[in-house]
Each structure stands twice: as structure tokens, then as C-alpha cells.
Specification:
This protein has 7 helices and 4 strands. With about 140 residues, the protein is mainly alpha-helical. It folds into 2 domains: about 70 residues, no CATH class; about 30 residues, no CATH class. The chain has a two-stranded antiparallel ribbon. It has a two-stranded antiparallel sheet with strand order 3-4. Strand 1 and strand 2 form a beta hairpin. Helix 1 packs across helix 3 and helix 4 crosses helix 5. The radius of gyration is 28 Å and the shape is flat.
Length: about 140
């Protein structure tokens, strides 16, 4: 079904993915007990799972290519809605203006929030003035 080249690529992908996830999936350090636990079975699971997933993705792409070839032969594909919006100025300009206005106005409500979450008393929150409330300062009512 697959050429040997594709199987080699999938094997390389699985080895590389196992290498990248090695510190997270294999090594477990317990600083209280001062022990290091090596979980090699997790690395094997990651390698096998990524190999199988890589093969399945390649099978899916081959099937998708075959189906799209049949669809192209049977009918002409229509243009996606997003491409039509980006191509036509009557849609693009109002959308761009709306996104620009939203991006400019979005931060404003956060600048004008009431100062009820700030405590300016240094005896409550330490020596800083205007420390933001994070749960360890008293909230001023």
C-alpha cells in the first residue's frame, strides 16, 4: 500500500516525536524523595502511537486526494466564502474597518475600570503603592 520511503518517513517522525517528548513523558523527578523515575514504557507508547498516527494521516491524505480528483472530474468546485470576501472590495473594506475599530476600542473598557481592586495602603499589601488585588490584599469596599 505504501512505498518503503513513506514508512521510513513515518518511522523518522515517530523517533523524532519520542525524542522531543522525552523530558516530559519519560523522566519524573520527585524532589521530596530525591528520586528520578524513568518511565520508558511511556516513550514506547509515544513512538508507537505517533508512528500509527502518521500512517493514518498519510492514508487519509491519499484518500482525500483520490476523492478530490473524482470531484474535480465530475463538477467545477465553487469558490469558498472567505475567498470571495477577501477578493471583493465591497465586503473586504467594511470588514477591515470593523476589525480595525474593534481592535482600537477593545482595550478602552479595561483602562476605565473602577479602582476598587487596587489597595493603595502600604501597610496592607507591602511597600508597593497601587498593588493590584490578587487575593492576598484586602479589597476596599
Amino acid at each position: 500500500m505504501f512505498p518503503l520511503k513513506e514508512l521510513k518517513r513515518s518511522l523518522l517522525v515517530s523517533v523524532w516525536f519520542a525524542f522531543l517528548t522525552f523530558p516530559i513523558m519519560v523522566i519524573k523527578v520527585d524532589p521530596i524523595e530525591r528520586t528520578v523515575l524513568w518511565r520508558w514504557d511511556n516513550m514506547a507508547f509515544v513512538a508507537i502511537g505517533s508512528f500509527i498516527l502518521s500512517i493514518l494521516i498519510k492514508v487519509w491524505f491519499v484518500r482525500k486526494e483520490r476523492r478530490s480528483g473524482r470531484k474535480k472530474a465530475s463538477k467545477v468546485l465553487t469558490e469558498p466564502f472567505t475567498q470571495r470576501i477577501l477578493r471583493e472590495p465591497r465586503f473586504l473594506y467594511p470588514l477591515s474597518l470593523g476589525v480595525l475599530i474593534f481592535a482600537l476600542l477593545f482595550p478602552l473598557p479595561f483602562f476605565y475600570l473602577p479602582d476598587q481592586y487596587y489597595d493603595y495602603r502600604p501597610d496592607v499589601c507591602g511597600s508597593w503603592v497601587g498593588v493590584k488585588y490578587r487575593g492576598w490584599c484586602r479589597r476596599i469596599a
